[in-house]
Amino acid sequence: MKRRRFLTLTAATLATPALLTRRAVAAEPGAPLPIPQVMEVGPGAGNTLTAMKGTREFMSGAASDTLGYEQDYLGPLLRFQRGRTANIDVVNRTDDPITAHWHGMHVPGHLDGGPQLAFDPGRTWSPELPVDHPAATLWYHSHVHGRTADQVYRGLAGMIIIDDPDAVDPLPRDYGTNDFPLIVQDRNFDRSGRMSYDPGMMDRMQGFRGTEMLVNGAIRPTLTVPAGLVRLRLLNASNARMYDFSFNDGRQFHQVASDGGLLPAPIAMNGLRLAPAERAEIVVNFTDRSAVRLVSRNVSSGGMMGGGGMMNGGGKMGSGSDDAPFEIMSFDVGDAAETGPATLPASLPSDLPDLGAPVRTRDFTLNVHTGSMMGGMFNNLIGRDGQIMGINGESYDMGSIDLAVPMGETELWRINADMMVHPFHVHGTSFQVVTMGGRAVDPARIGMKDVVLVDGPTEILVRFDKRAEKETPFMYHCHILEHEDAGMMGQFTVG
Q1: 409 or 318: whose pLDDT is higher?
Q2: How does residue 302 score in pLDDT terms, banded at 50, 70 and 90?
Q3: How large is the average pLDDT for residues 262-283?
Q4: Domains, the chain, ranges and CATH?
Q5: How far apart are CA 198 and CA 9, in angstroms?
Q6: Comparing C-alpha atoms, which of 266, 280, 284 is closest to residue 348?
Q7: What percent of the chain lies above the pLDDT cut of 70?
Q8: Which of 13, 58, 268, 407 pairs as cysteine with 30 (C-beta 3.0–4.6 A)?
Q9: From which residue to which does the signal peptide run (predicted)?
């Protein structure tokens, strides 16, 4: 097992913005951004990922109970190489069953790490992962049904980078120097400064949102970058919060990759919206040496009664919010970069497959059950085992297979939602987005995806090339983790 030590970077203290949706505790922003250690995972023995209990002082003098892989909170950055087998022992040293779901990886169902593969404290799961995926930024997290939101919130998550030796990209790629992982999360803290997760009914209906922004486990940290092109790998690892990322000076940047890997060409933009579980790689030019802040605006996920505000005080996500931007992290600029490209290429070595024409069409409606609160005013979904969410009128049942998908065929999936917007995730594959909100989408801007934000009628083109048996099926679900735990999930076989 190879590791890279944490890098210590320059800190700066910045003013605390007024944010988000709950009462915030006075925090201590500006600490150096922690850079996750790297675990190079290849064939053979020696790669161990231990899930464990821990404590972390997010705020000085206040120790929070946490979970992590190999450390007290979050986990190392796992680095896989396309075309090589990745052997890894996942050890459970927590008090509860866990999984390790390789989110976005194209692996068979018995290796996917979904709810059917939960294993108890003291046990070890040893998957042998065939790395058959283009170069991309993915992530891993626990996926125990009914416990996913709590376990991910407490820290059972980390980033994955897949490298392709046959398609080296002409982008900044010196990890910890001009290529940085940014795991973005919102967390809540009590009066003592301890991280807390105690969702009420509205949190379960809307999704839990915290008051403080964490990046790589630090509250609104500072990163010193070289004066040149810098690659930022953004992961929205929040339970429910959606982000409209931008820089406080309005500077332009370029998106170079989406969930499934590189885009055909860099796309210039001034803002980037990411729903929970989405990833994007961006390249930012810091040659002007100006200190800047990465910020976001509050984004509504909608509410009941047509988005009138019963839940969140605002309409559907597409309407956004007029709140002032809140700070994610800050950047200081050091000396000119010694390595890395000076300019962005006009095109990128993307790997966008031709999925062909769909053989069949399937329809999915994401349901929020409100009958228990409103006497069935809105819909008639009866939640199984107290679950308040569902898909196509049914809450998740681990013992039932919802779909049987033929191997190697392309399908058109049409997805809609009856009340809110939802990030929709499909296991075991990547897909191309055809329409979002009833509007055509340019595939060159989206690339290959495994999460799509459903804000009105949405269509995806998907092909399944990895087998999943009924004992270990693949999942499709909302990636607002409270919704997933509450039953907005289905499962399917491929064969």
Answers
A1: 409
A2: low
A3: 96
A4: 38-163 (2.60.40.420), 179-336 (2.60.40.420), 360-494 (2.60.40.420)
A5: 33
A6: 266
A7: 86
A8: 13
A9: 1-26
SS3 content of the chain, % helix, strand, coil (to 5): 10, 40, 50
Q: Tell me the average pLDDT across 12-33.
A: 48
CA 266/CA 77 separation, integer angstroms: 25
Q: With beta carbons less than 8 A apart as the criterion, state whether 325 and 296 touch.
A: yes
DSSP E strand boundaries for 299-417: 326-336, 360-368, 389-391, 403-405, 410-417
Which comes out higher in pLDDT, residue 133 or 2?
133
Kindly give the pairing relationship between strand 48-59 and strand 89-93. Answer: parallel
Q: What pLDDT was estimated at residue 445?
A: 76
Mean pLDDT across the chain: 87
Confidence of residue 28 (pLDDT cuts 50, 70, 90): low
Q: Which of 325, 334, 343, 317 is nearest to 250 (CA)?
A: 325
Name the burial class of residue 177, with classes exposed (0-12), middle (13-18) and buried (19+) by CB atoms within 10 angstroms of its CB.
middle
**CA separation for the pair 279, 181 (Å, rounded):** 11
Q: Which helix (H) or strand (E) holds 433?
A: strand 431-436
Q: Residue 328: count other Cβ atoms within 10 Å of its Cβ.
A: 22
The Cα–Cα gap between 213 and 93 comes to 28
pLDDT in tens, 99-123: 999 999 999 999 999 999 999 999 9
350: three-class secondary structure by DSSP? coil
Question: Which residues in 207-354 belong to E strands, given as ranges?
Answer: 212-215, 218-219, 222-227, 229-236, 243-247, 253-258, 261-269, 272-274, 279-285, 292-297, 326-336
Rounded to whole angstroms, the maximal C-alpha distance in the chain is 65
Using CA atoms, how far residue 360 sits from 97, 232, 411, 462, 475, in Å, is 37, 38, 5, 11, 19
Angle at 245 between CA 304 and CA 458, to 5 degrees: 50
Of 73, 107, 116, the residue nearest 87 (C-alpha): 107
DSSP string, 208-240: ---SEEEETTEES-EEEEEESEEEEEEEE--SS
- pLDDT reported for residue 307: 32
Encode pLDDT of 157-200 as tens digits: 999 999 999 988 999 999 999 999 999 999 999 999 999 999 98
Enumerate residues 6+ apart whose C-beta is below 8 A from 116.
Answer: 398, 471, 472, 473
Which amino acid type is present at position 213? M
> Given a cut of 90, is residue 264 above it in pLDDT?
yes
